[in-house]
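B., you asked whether I could sanity-check this one before it goes into the benchmark set. Here's the sequence:
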Amino acid sequence: MNLVMISLDTLRADVAYSGRFPSIERLRARGCSFMTTVSSSPLTPISHATIFTGLQPPNHGIRHLLKEQMNPAARTLTEVMAEAGYNTGAVVSCPGMNRWYGLSRGFAHYDDWIPPLADGRDALQVIDVELRGTALKRAPLVVERALEWARRAGPGPKLLFAHFFDAHWPYESPEEPPPGTANPYEGEVWYMDRYLGLLLDGLAELGMTDENTTFVLFSDHGEDLAGWYENDHSGELGHPEEKGHGCLLFDATQLVPLVVCAPGVTTPGSQVAEQVRLVDVAPTVLELMGRDGLECDGRSLVPLLRGEPMPHAPAYCEAFYREELASMNQRWAHLLPLKGIRNPGEKVVWEVGGERVESYDMLQDPCERNPLVLVDGQPR
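And here's what the prediction gave me:
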C-alpha cells in the first residue's frame, strides 16, 4: 500500500469545503472529510511538525517561526515508514518547510529548493510572514518534481509528500481564474487545485491509484483576509498585527481541511462532523498503514473513519510568533504569546505571562465577536 500526503498550505476549511474546487472535491468524493479539524498553530513549520510527529508544539519543540529546530528525540511518521521499507520522497515549496527545522527526517529525498527573495536575501532568515511568502516553488514545479521522483522510485511501496504554497500572500494567481471566483485568495486556491488534479492524474498513470494508495489531504492553517469572510478579525477589524496568519487563534486560521481516502476503510463521500485535530493525523496514518512506533499526543481517527463513535478530545493551539513580531517592531512590543483550548461549544484563549483571558461561545457566536473577557480574574 502506497501513501500520498498532500499539504495545501494556508487553506481555510470553509473555502476548501465550498464545493468550488474540482480536485479537492474529487478526493472528497473518494474518501472521508473531517469537517471540524483544528490546527495546533497558525504557522507552517510548527503545524507541519505536529502533523508528522503527532506531538503538540511544546513536545516537538518548534514554537516560533525562526528560533527552534525539532526536538531530536521526536520521531516522525516518515521515519517509521522508512524503517518499514518504504521509499520516501518529499517536494516542499516554502522557507517554512526547509530541512533546517528537522522536517526532512525519514525522507530519502527531500526537495526544499526555493528561489531567493527579490532583493537576493535568503527567505529562511526573514521573520516577516508576508515577505517570506514571496519565495516559493509554484504548483507546476511541485507537480513536475513530485512525479519525477515517483517515476524514479520504481517498484515497491512509496510515501510521497507534496506541499503546495500558492494560497499564501500575495494572492496573485499566475493563471486567470474562472468567472465567479470570490476574491484573489480564492484565485490562488483555484490555481493550486488545478495542479493538484494534474498531480493525481500523473500518479494514477504511474500506478498509484485508489486501490493501492492511501491519500491524505490537509492544510496546516487557514488565512484571515481582513473582511473577505465574515469570521475575519485582522487589519481594520481590530487586529492590525495579523498579516494573514501567525498572531491569532480564531477559527479563520485554526480550522483546516482534512480528507482521508483509505481503500477498504473510508466510505466514499462520507463526512465526520466531530471535532478532530491535526495532531491526530500521524497516529491515524500509521494505523491505516498497519504501523506503530510513535509516542503521540494525538489519537487515531480510524474508528471515526469506520463510522464508530469516539469520545471528545479538546484541541490545543498556540501562537508564540507574537514574541518574534514584538522583538522585530516596537509597535507590537505589547504582544504576548497566546494559548487556547477549543471544544465544540467553547473556545478559551489566554495570554502567556499576561492576565487577559477570553472565552467564546462557539454555538451562539461562531464568528467569535463577543468574548467574555477576564482581566485580573474579573469579567469585563
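One thing to flag: The radius of gyration is 20 Å. Otherwise nothing jumped out at me.
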